[in-house]
């Protein structure tokens, strides 16, 4: 539970592009699992299909909604969101993650930054640089910047600078944030370190890396891959991919939850 104190405003920056079932899962599980008391929500949509636009417009809790006519890429969308954000911290939230653990993990991440600023010991990589990002994905490594769910102080983003504005969507499945945004990752890594949440609490449920055809995709476009999935599995574009990923992570989640329960019990004892 959140302790009695004044918590800084966190701007949750959501990037949306199609895949309604993933977007709904991401938003619903995040709001269900996070106990942090002081958010603003900013959603940037990259030219989604009408059903996604309709869903986005139905979300009454959004503080700001930026609707683009076409997909200009992840970096462009995140720049748009962060330019209007008012929070002291930014939380990056793409539209294909599922959160599974309700706890004060966001509050503890804020305290990690506060401890690091005081000069207290914080487990981070590399250890000699100021903490710039706390990650929340189950199975993630501490090292290196990522666009996966993570908390970053506003001052860090201002220091590192904006994402490279590609001005287009990723055209091939062999492209990724890591290959497109190399310059941003280099700038971040020269100045700041990363840390893992004490209780990583989300899994990746979408994207090209999670589908069973990953090893055979070559230089196919996303549209081609989409069509392959629809042709082979008639229950929707991403239904099998989602359930495949959910099944693969089931044991990891169970193991993590057992570990977190022991952690919570030890906290109560102290």
Class by helix and strand content? alpha/beta
Order of strands in the sheet with most strands: 3-2-1-4-7-6-8
CATH fold field value: Spore Coat Polysaccharide Biosynthesis Protein SpsA, Chain A
Order of helices and strands: EHEHEHEEHEEHHHEEHH
Number of helices: 9
Low-confidence stretches: 208-217
Note down, in words, how this protein is organized.
The protein is of the alpha/beta class and 270 residues long. The protein has a single domain (10-205), classed as Spore Coat Polysaccharide Biosynthesis Protein SpsA, Chain A, CATH 3.90.550.10. It has nine helices and nine strands. The strands form two sheets. A seven-stranded mixed β-sheet has the order 3-2-1-4-7-6-8, sandwiched between helices. A two-stranded antiparallel ribbon has the order 5-9. The protein is globular and about 50 Å long. The two termini are 15 Å apart.
Spell out the blueprint of helices and strands.
Elements: E1 10-16, H1 20-33, E2 39-45, H2 50-57, E3 64-67, H3 74-84, E4 89-94, E5 97-99, H4 105-118, E6 131-135, E7 150-153, H5 154-160, H6 177-180, H7 182-191, E8 193-196, E9 202-204, H8 222-232, H9 239-269
What's the quick description here?
The chain is of the alpha/beta class.
Entry keywords:
270 residues; alpha/beta; Spore Coat Polysaccharide Biosynthesis Protein SpsA, Chain A; 9 helices; 16% strand
């Amino acid at each position: 539970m959140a302790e009695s104190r004044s918590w800084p405003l966190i701007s949750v920056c959501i990037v949306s592009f199609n895949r309604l079932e993933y977007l709904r899962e991401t938003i619903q599980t995040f709001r269900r699992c996070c106990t942090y008391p002081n958010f603003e929500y900013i959603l940037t949509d990259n030219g989604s299909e009408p059903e996604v636009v309709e869903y986005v417009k139905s979300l009454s809790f959004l503080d700001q909604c930026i609707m683009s006519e076409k997909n200009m890429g992840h970096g462009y969308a995140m720049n748009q969101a962060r330019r209007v954000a008012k929070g002291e911290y930014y939380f990056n939230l793409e539209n294909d993650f599922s959160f599974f653990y309700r706890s004060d993990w966001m509050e503890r991440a804020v305290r990690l930054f506060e401890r690091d600023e005081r000069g207290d010991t914080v487990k981070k990589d590399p250890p000699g640089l100021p903490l710039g990002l706390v990650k929340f994905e189950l199975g993630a490594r501490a090292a290196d910047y990522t666009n996966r769910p993570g908390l970053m102080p506003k001052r860090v983003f201002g220091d590192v600078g904006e994402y490279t504005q590609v001005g287009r969507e990723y055209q091939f499945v062999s492209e990724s944030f890591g290959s497109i945004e190399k310059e941003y990752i280099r700038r971040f890594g020269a100045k700041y370190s990363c840390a893992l949440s004490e209780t990583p609490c989300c899994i990746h449920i979408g994207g090209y890396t999670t589908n069973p055809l990953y090893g055979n995709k070559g230089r196919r476009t996303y549209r081609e891959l989409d069509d392959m999935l629809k042709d082979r599995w008639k229950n929707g574009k991403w239904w099998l991919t989602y359930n495949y990923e959910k099944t693969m992570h089931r044991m990891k989640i169970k193991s993590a939850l057992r570990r977190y329960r022991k952690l919570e019990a030890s906290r109560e004892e102290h």
